[in-house]
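the three lines:
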Amino acid sequence: MKGVILREAPGVTVVDLSHGVPAQDVVAARFYLERCHEWFSPGTVHLCVVDPGVGTARAAIAARANGSWFVAPDNGVLDGVLRSDETSEVRRIDLQALHLTPKSRTFHGRDVFAKVAAWLARERVLFEGLGPVHTPVMLDRQEPVLGPSEAKGEVILVDHFGNLITDIPAGSLTPAFTVEIGGRTLRSVGTYGDAEAGECCGLIGSYDTLEVARRDGSAAAELGVGRGAKVRVRRERELPG
Amino acid sequence: MKGVILREAPGVTVVDLSHGVPAQDVVAARFYLERCHEWFSPGTVHLCVVDPGVGTARAAIAARANGSWFVAPDNGVLDGVLRSDETSEVRRIDLQALHLTPKSRTFHGRDVFAKVAAWLARERVLFEGLGPVHTPVMLDRQEPVLGPSEAKGEVILVDHFGNLITDIPAGSLTPAFTVEIGGRTLRSVGTYGDAEAGECCGLIGSYDTLEVARRDGSAAAELGVGRGAKVRVRRERELPG
Amino acid sequence: MKGVILREAPGVTVVDLSHGVPAQDVVAARFYLERCHEWFSPGTVHLCVVDPGVGTARAAIAARANGSWFVAPDNGVLDGVLRSDETSEVRRIDLQALHLTPKSRTFHGRDVFAKVAAWLARERVLFEGLGPVHTPVMLDRQEPVLGPSEAKGEVILVDHFGNLITDIPAGSLTPAFTVEIGGRTLRSVGTYGDAEAGECCGLIGSYDTLEVARRDGSAAAELGVGRGAKVRVRRERELPG
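prediction for all of em together
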């Protein structure tokens, strides 16, 4: 993919957002993209090819949201980004009109999406010229349940450190809380260094959601849980109405 | 290596082709290079240092093939690229004439090859000026056996998804076939999504060879096989003569 | 972090030094930085965020050493670099004066350090303008013990190949020696290819320290040792006084 991008858009800067998306995990990729894209410059082209349906009838899409561009298969991987900007717009990429004939049925990242991303980055094609306006597929999944005294969600990512990143938003957590996960009840802290040596705890992580961590270690290994594990938060006081 | 490249050729774009070459696996690296180099711009310098013989008498070489440049140890890692262009040319890098005195006996990637690649990228040295014409070492390995009704080969790579990438070329496969691997017989499909949930299958992969995959999972884990596993394809009809 | 760097310093070249630093391992990161920084161009900004104390009272610092810049938490990760240049200088980054208000208490790599590194790279702030001169935290660890006939140290890194990189400097090793590690006694060789097939051996590695390797394999797996393992070298002759 990087070869194609640099061939189509010489000199463009390419960086990897993460090497931590599990294979075929559209939900994890959606989370990374939603939570990280605003740290990049406006106008960045975000190319996101987690694509278990490659080579089937699923569409290829591009989107404009929060001042940046997104290129992806139409499988819900963009739905977090799209929900975050109510003025976002989606186009279906018209392969035929753009003379995009995939060489392979199993790697449209290389044969389709990388080219389109490069063309957008160099303005060799306008967003409006990619194809017709399109209603994208949204993910069909259980969203976190946020009540006045407790919140329920799940582990969306296990990061490089073994931290358990959940989908419970920071806004439903403050000021202090307890976390139930893997049969354990954990207290909340402000940052890793506030925990005791080896202690597992809950905190507001850098994705602005509940994170379960272990000081100087791996919460995933210590608690024996991972992607998809259920988590419940109990607030010590109710949130102000 | 990247530090040296950027010191010798400031502003050059450097990308990694793969993080998936197993340690010391010249055959896997040869395959990646042969199958991927044409997706990069002509004129790209491909630096490939899989080099178990570093610091011994093995030569350092550079090659011109398919309009691009290659810099590598002389251990067969380039032979796929060289076989793909009958007008390719190889030079032995003359370390003494180029004042290349390796600091280390165990990392010529940093001390020799990165410098030469950077110099070629910036035309600070011409290919013809690197040293004398050279007859390169070719790999001594069993090539796939391609017959009219069956083909035999092996697994060359296990990719990030657990897909088993083989050396049986796509041209010997169409239109439909069965695959024998790990004691199992699998049908062929057009792409991952054509298989049933969890089914292992054979298909033409994006390297343009036979690939054995599992829908939404890892074929390597499910079949219990990996790098070097034998694979046999039986065509449902004979190929036209 | 890369998004922030490229937003603050468009067009700057960003490369990863290593993907091999274990989580929270300040000693390993210190070693990489000390041993690798001089291969990069003078003027490079080295951004090193191994930061188990993120969000606590530990300071953020920047340093000038060997003609390059360093940005890191004040936890000893720079002490190898600072020891290597007696004219080095350290400043405490004054977050308030620079209007650096971290969004998160757990990822100052993104919220503080990436910005400062980008500003230094683009000279949007001068080193002297980052804050007051500062006496940095140095690491409190056992340095290798170097005697006339033997040296004792430990394994600092296990690299991608399973090579055991130690902290015993090359200068205390030549010309020939034996290595005791994991209950085994190994001979020294000049490079990997000088060992017998499958043999474990000691050699001077590319970090310019003692390395324990296995030809065509992993010394870590074969010897059953890793990070922190004790190693003793016995010289065959005493070093000249």
